[in-house]
Write a structure and sequence with these properties.
single chain, alpha/beta, 5-stranded antiparallel beta sheet, 31% helix, 23% strand
Length: 281
């Protein structure tokens, strides 16, 4: 990002960090979550790091985040406690003290975000005193923005999109899938992987998953494709499924896999406890 669109935009990223981060993901994800939650935030901040100097604010009370955020080009803002709304407010106050004409709050769980998507969203938000963009599910909030002296009125949490609309924020409708795809659980993580996640998230998944795991992406009579947890798409032939003992796979199904030497083709697919050679345990 070499220039900010329209107003002098600052971006605020609240990051909870630590062992309490991403409790919903913790309940659904098979591997350790603390490192993965940190990686989601790193990739989100990295996608914003092209903002001009002094225009990226990370709000946190987590010591680990406080170590890496300045290296990524962010100004640190102390989280005052009191939840996400209070953290967002602290970030906006920091941005306005720094002379911001406009401020956008982006939560730290958008690992598939691309810098051009953020620029497009800020340009769309510029004409409005206050605006927001719903997440991919349409119920949460991916981005909350204010210009001039308009109050932020954050209403984050489950069902926040409707609350932000009722609070007077204009709903922005844009095709920016990486920006709209936040990660709250294993299903949304899989959806982010289909878009392609940043390097920190990909590395965290490689480090925490004991086996190579994937999600079935497409199915056809002669085989299909699967999406690995590091974002790569690989192919498999019908013979691989025929040898697996699995007859009712569906798109989105989580499976364990083995790859050939080039890492592009599946040679075996199974579900733990189901299929040839698998013992229920």
């Amino acid at each position: 990002m070499n220039a900010s669109p329209g107003p002098d935009w600052h971006v605020v990223v609240p990051v909870k960090g630590g062992p309490a981060a991403k409790t919903r993901l913790r309940r659904s994800h098979a591997g350790p979550v603390a490192g993965l939650a940190d990686a989601l935030a790193r990739d989100t901040v990295a996608a914003c790091a092209g903002m001009p100097q002094g225009r990226l604010h990370v709000v946190t009370s987590d010591p680990g985040t406080a170590r890496w955020a300045p290296v990524a080009g962010a100004l640190l803002v102390a989280d005052p406690g009191g939840g996400l709304d209070a953290a967002a407010g602290a970030g906006v106050a920091s941005a306005r003290r720094a002379g911001a004409d406009a401020v956008a709050v982006l939560l730290g769980d958008h690992p598939a975000l691309r810098p051009p998507e953020l620029l497009e969203a800020l340009a769309a938000a510029a004409p409005h005193p206050s605006s927001f963009m719903a997440d991919a599910d349409g119920t949460g909030t991916a981005l909350l923005a204010v210009t001039g002296t308009a109050p932020l009125r954050p209403r984050f949490g489950a069902g926040s999109a409707d609350r932000h609309a009722r609070a007077g924020h204009v709903r922005l409708e844009l095709a920016v899938p990486g920006l709209r795809r936040d990660v709250d659980d294993d299903a949304s993580l899989t959806a982010a992987l289909r878009l392609g996640v940043g390097p920190a998230t990909a590395e965290a998944l490689r480090a925490t998953l004991p086996d190579v795991q994937a999600s079935i992406h497409t199915l056809a009579e002669d085989g299909g494709t699967a999406l690995l947890d590091d974002g790569r798409e690989v192919v498999f032939a019908d013979a691989v499924l025929a040898g697996s003992g699995l007859r009712h796979l569906r798109v989105g199904q989580r499976v364990s896999v083995e790859l050939d030497d080039d890492g592009r083709t599946l040679t075996r697919v199974w579900i733990v406890g189901i299929g040839a050679g698998e013992t229920i345990r």
